[in-house]
From TrEMBL:
Transmembrane regions listed in the UniProt entry: 49-70, 76-98, 119-143, 169-189, 201-223, 229-251, 272-293, 322-341, 368-389, 395-415, 427-445, 451-470
Predominant location category: membrane
Protein name as it appears in the record: Amino acid permease
Organism: Acidipropionibacterium jensenii
Claim: Transmembrane helix is one of the keywords in the record: yes
Topology versus the membrane: Multi-pass membrane protein
The keyword Aminoacyl-tRNA synthetase is assigned to this record: no
Length: 485
């Protein structure tokens, strides 16, 4: 096999259909295809886009990862939430600049392709595939906890333990998680606008339920629960930040909608910033009230923790039932958004020739990449059915952080290589802000478990093998020039 040149590995391109005004000659640009078999439909508003960010974020870090993170940091998990929000905030403004410059369905994959070249973009694409797929599986695993609680409270029975947990957690398969992914598949196949409307309804339900939880939990608030605030020191806070960070994946999902939203240069940055503010406020409200109502030691290995907290405060099962209803509905939206995001990443990579072209073919009526959606959902169903929550959460965090760091670096590179590109939004405090974002991402990664880092390294190695044996030769930029610049 011929050794690739540096020029081949780092060839750059703008996302398909993005204007090349102000673009230097070194960055290729492919016009929008006129055939509708590969084109998405612009059908979403700024409000729907904001709710996609909230829907894909609020739920994962509150409804069940709290019971994973509190044992790592104690009450200092509040600092972990703040750190995760600061890192996400630094990155969100970087996303906002690139999304306003190159609105596309590829998110950080497309941004990296234009700034650092094909090889780095492919690695980012691999990170995003890991990030979205594993996150959707993790959320589905947590959903089954609340579904079982709801069924037990309302019907008096639930799925047996052997059908409610992965093999490593003492079961055979997590059947409720598989069922959830199947329901998301059916909704995604109906179309992006239908999925966005369903998500908006579920987000409203989610917010109402969490406000109800906080109101009840504050009635049982005990300040002494915060007395031993950081029992595991800074290391515990860092570890918990890494575990919690995967819950911010919904913000990246906003950036994958560039090809399906009206006026993306303004709508995407606005939605990113609004979603971050709403998410952070809700996370801190619920975390403070939960820790005030229940001592940190009680969170360890607790399933459906928020429901059990309000049941303990009131002394009755009805608040837990209400919360379980909200959790079952709202966590559905998180899974839906994660699956949506992954299908759009694969769609963009397929249009660029880095994965098979069949993955970017869309249905003539719904404009949905059907084969792509089926493959994603089947893969996620397998992960959700057979892997435990802790492993899935940490793997998602490292994929998210890697993509976030490269997006921040991309802002710096694109400012230098293409300063004349029109930008609907510019990062405040440049270049300090993107540099701080990169440092913060590296800091959070350093707190993850060694096993997680090893598993991530294996995944990237597999992705590189695929790139060098298939993607490099099939890339659109490897083909003879057609309508490129």
């Amino acid at each position: 096999m011929r050794t690739p040149t540096a020029q081949e590995l780092f060839r750059r391109r703008l996302p398909t259909g993005v204007s090349d005004e102000g673009c230097p000659e070194g960055i290729a640009q492919t016009p929008e295809r006129i055939d509708e078999s590969h084109s998405l439909r612009r059908s979403m508003s700024t409000l729907q886009l904001t709710l996609i960010g909230v829907g894909g974020t609020v739920g994962t870090g509150i409804f069940f990862i709290l019971s994973q993170a509190v044992p790592e940091a104690g009450p200092a998990v509040l600092i972990s939430f703040v750190l995760a929000a600061v890192v996400a905030g630094l990155t969100v403004v970087c996303y906002a600049e690139l999304a306003s410059t190159m609105p596309s369905s590829g998110s950080s994959y497309s941004f990296t392709y234009a700034t650092m070249g094909e090889l780095v973009a492919f690695i980012v694409g691999a990170c995003l595939i890991l990030e979205y797929g594993v996150s959707a599986a993790a959320v589905a695993v947590g959903w089954s906890e609340y579904l079982n609680l709801l069924m037990h409270n309302l019907l008096g029975f639930s799925f047996p333990a052997i059908l409610s947990a992965a093999p490593d957690a003492g079961g055979l398969v997590n059947l409720p998680a598989v069922i959830l992914v199947g329901m998301c598949l059916l909704l995604l196949l109906r179309g992006a606008s239908e999925s966005a409307r369903a998500n908006s309804i579920m987000v409203i339900v989610k917010m109402v339920v969490l406000v109800i939880f906080a109101a009840i939990a504050f009635t049982g608030f005990h300040a002494d629960h915060f007395s031993n605030f950081a029992p595991y020191g800074a290391h515990g806070v860092t570890m918990a930040t890494g575990s919690l960070f995967f819950s911010y994946i919904g913000l990246d999902a906003v950036a994958t909608t560039g090809g399906e939203v009206h006026n993306p240069r303004k709508a995407v940055p606005r939605a990113l910033i609004l979603a971050l503010i709403i998410v952070t406020a809700i996370y801190l409200l619920v975390a403070v009230s939960a820790l005030g109502a229940q001592p940190a030691s009680a969170f360890s290995d607790q399933t459906a923790s928020l429901a059990h907290i309000v049941e303990g405060v009131v002394g009755s099962s009805w608040p837990g039932t209400v919360l379980a209803v909200g959790a079952v509905i709202s966590i559905f939206s998180v899974t839906l958004i994660c699956l949506y995001g992954q299908t759009r990443i694969l769609y963009s990579m397929s249009r660029d020739g880095l994965v098979p072209a069949k993955l970017s073919e869309v249905h003539p009526r719904t404009r949905v990449p059907v084969l792509n959606t089926w493959i994603v959902c089947l893969a996620v169903a397998v992960l959700a059915g057979f892997l435990p929550l802790g492993i899935l959460a940490d793997l998602t965090s490292i994929g998210t952080l890697s993509a976030f760091a490269l997006v921040s670096l991309g802002v710096i590179i694109l400012r230098r290589t293409a300063p004349d590109l029109p930008r609907g939004f510019k990062v405040p405090g440049y270049p300090v802000t993107p540099i701080l974002s990169i440092i913060a991402c590296i800091y959070v990664v350093s707190g993850l478990h060694a096993l997680t880092l090893m598993a991530f390294g294996v995944w990237i190695a597999i992705a590189l093998v695929f790139y060098f044996t298939w993607s490099r030769r099939h890339s659109e930029l490897a083909a003879p020039p057609r309508d490129l610049r």
